[in-house]
C-alpha cells in the first residue's frame, strides 16, 4: 500500500479506500459482525488506513462496527463519515416507506450537521471525525451556512477535514471560493460515482476538482460489480435487470476489460480499479466488499499497473460525449485559433486532449 496526501492537505491516506456501506445486515444484505471485522482487519493488514462510511449506512450499524474495530488504535485510521441523509429511527427503510421523522433530521442545515455529528460520535466511539462529508446537496440550505457550520466544527476540533459528495460543480466551486476568501476550512476531497462505465464527471466535476486541488474519491469504481464480469457469467447480484450498468454499451465496455484482464492474467475488477487509480488527477477508488475474498481480489490492484497502450484503449472504448463546452474545446479549429498553432508544443495538464 502506498499513501497520498488528500487534496491540498497534509493528511496521508492509503491509495485505496475501504467502503463500509456493506458492514452490517440491517438492509437485508451485507456482512455480519464477524465478517465485518475480518474485512477491516484484512484491509488494515494490507496497509489500508482510509475508511469511508456514512451516518445512515445500514441504519448506523456500519459506524458502530467501525467504532468497535478501531478502539485500541483510533489514531492509526482516517475515518470519513457523512451527514445529510435521514438516520433517525426506525431507520432509513422506514423513511423510504413513507414514515415521517424529524423535518430537520435531514438536509445540509447547521442543525442537522451538529445532530448527525453527535450521533456519529456515539456510534464510532470517538470524539473527533477525520473527514466529514456533505453527503448530497439538498438545494435548500444557503452555501455560506454550510461552509460556516463546517468551519465551526473544524475550529472546535470536532472535525479535522471537510469534503463534499454528490453535488453540482457550480455549488462546490462557489462553496470553496467563499471558504477561501473568508479564511474558513476548505474541502479536501470530492466523492462522485466514477468508473469505466460512469465517466460523466469528466465534463465538469473532475476538471473542477483538478483546479481546486481536490482528491476525487470514486464510489462504485466497479459499477456495482458489473465490471468484474460476474453478470456476464450469469451470477446473481444486487443490480436489477434494467440497470444501466447492464446495458449493451456497459456490457461492451466490460468485455474489453475482460479481454485486457485475460492478457495480464488478473481478475477484470483489478483492471477496472487500476484504470481509476492511474488517472492523471488525484483519484482514490472506494472499494466495497462483503466477503474477504472480494476484498483480497481488489487489493491485487496495488501490485498491478496498466501499460499506457491498454490504459488508452480503455479510455477510447469507454469515451463519452463531453457536450458543450468540453467537446467544443477539442475541435481543431478552436485549438488553432486559441493557441495559434502551438497547441502541440505547449506542455500543460489542463489543455484539452
From TrEMBL:
GO CC terms for this protein?
cytosol
Instruction: Kindly give the Pfam families that the UniProt entry links to this protein.
Output: Aldo_ket_red
TM region positions: none
Alphabetical list of CDD domains matching this protein:
AKR_AKR9A_9B (cd19080)
Per UniProt, which keywords does this protein have?
A: Oxidoreductase
Q: Where is the NADP-dependent oxidoreductase domain?
A: 15-315
Protein's organism:
Thermaurantimonas aggregans
Return the protein name.
Oxidoreductase
Task: List the top taxonomic levels of the source.
Answer: Bacteria, Pseudomonadati, Bacteroidota, Flavobacteriia, Flavobacteriales
Query: Out of the domains of life, which is the source?
Result: Bacteria
Which terms in the Gene Ontology molecular function aspect does this entry carry? oxidoreductase activity
Amino acid at each position: 500500500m502506498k499513501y497520498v496526501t488528500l487534496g491540498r492537505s497534509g493528511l496521508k491516506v492509503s491509495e485505496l479506500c475501504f467502503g463500509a456501506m456493506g458492514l452490517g445486515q440491517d438492509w437485508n444484505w451485507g456482512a455480519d459482525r464477524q465478517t465485518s471485522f475480518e474485512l477491516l482487519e484484512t484491509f488494515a493488514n494490507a496497509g489500508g488506513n482510509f475508511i469511508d462510511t456514512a451516518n445512515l449506512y445500514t441504519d448506523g450499524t456500519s459506524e458502530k462496527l467501525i467504532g468497535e474495530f478501531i478502539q485500541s488504535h483510533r489514531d492509526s485510521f482516517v475515518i470519513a463519515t457523512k451527514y445529510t441523509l435521514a438516520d433517525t429511527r426506525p431507520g432509513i427503510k422506514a423513511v423510504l416507506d413513507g414514515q415521517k421523522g424529524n423535518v430537520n433530521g435531514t438536509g445540509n442545515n447547521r442543525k442537522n450537521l451538529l445532530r448527525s455529528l453527535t450521533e456519529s460520535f456515539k456510534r464510532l466511539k470517538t470524539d473527533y471525525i477525520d473527514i466529514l462529508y456533505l453527503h448530497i446537496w439538498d438545494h435548500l440550505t444557503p452555501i455560506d451556512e454550510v461552509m460556516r457550520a463546517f468551519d465551526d466544527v473544524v475550529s472546535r476540533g470536532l472535525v479535522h477535514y471537510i469534503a463534499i459528495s454528490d453535488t453540482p460543480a457550480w455549488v462546490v466551486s462557489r462553496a470553496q471560493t467563499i471558504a477561501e476568501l473568508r479564511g474558513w476550512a476548505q474541502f479536501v476531497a470530492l466523492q462522485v460515482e466514477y468508473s469505466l462505465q460512469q465517466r460523466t464527471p469528466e465534463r465538469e466535476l473532475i476538471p473542477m476538482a483538478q483546479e481546486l486541488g481536490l482528491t476525487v474519491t470514486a464510489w462504485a469504481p466497479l459499477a456495482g460489480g458489473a465490471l468484474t464480469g460476474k453478470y456476464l457469467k450469469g451470477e446473481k447480484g444486487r443490480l436489477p435487470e434494467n440497470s444501466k450498468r447492464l446495458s449493451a454499451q456497459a456490457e461492451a465496455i466490460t468485455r474489453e476489460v475482460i479481454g485486457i484482464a485475460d492478457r495480464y492474467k488478473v481478475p477484470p475488477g483489478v483492471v477496472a480499479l487500476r484504470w481509476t487509480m492511474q488517472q492523471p488527477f488525484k483519484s482514490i477508488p472506494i472499494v466495497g466488499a462483503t466477503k474477504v475474498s472480494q476484498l483480497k481480489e481488489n487489493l491485487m490492484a496495488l501490485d498491478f499497473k496498466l501499460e499506457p497502450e491498454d490504459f488508452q484503449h480503455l479510455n477510447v472504448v469507454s469515451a463519452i460525449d463531453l457536450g458543450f463546452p468540453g467537446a467544443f474545446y477539442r475541435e481543431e479549429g478552436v485549438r488553432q485559433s486559441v493557441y495559434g498553432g502551438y497547441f502541440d508544443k505547449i506542455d500543460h495538464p489542463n489543455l484539452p486532449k
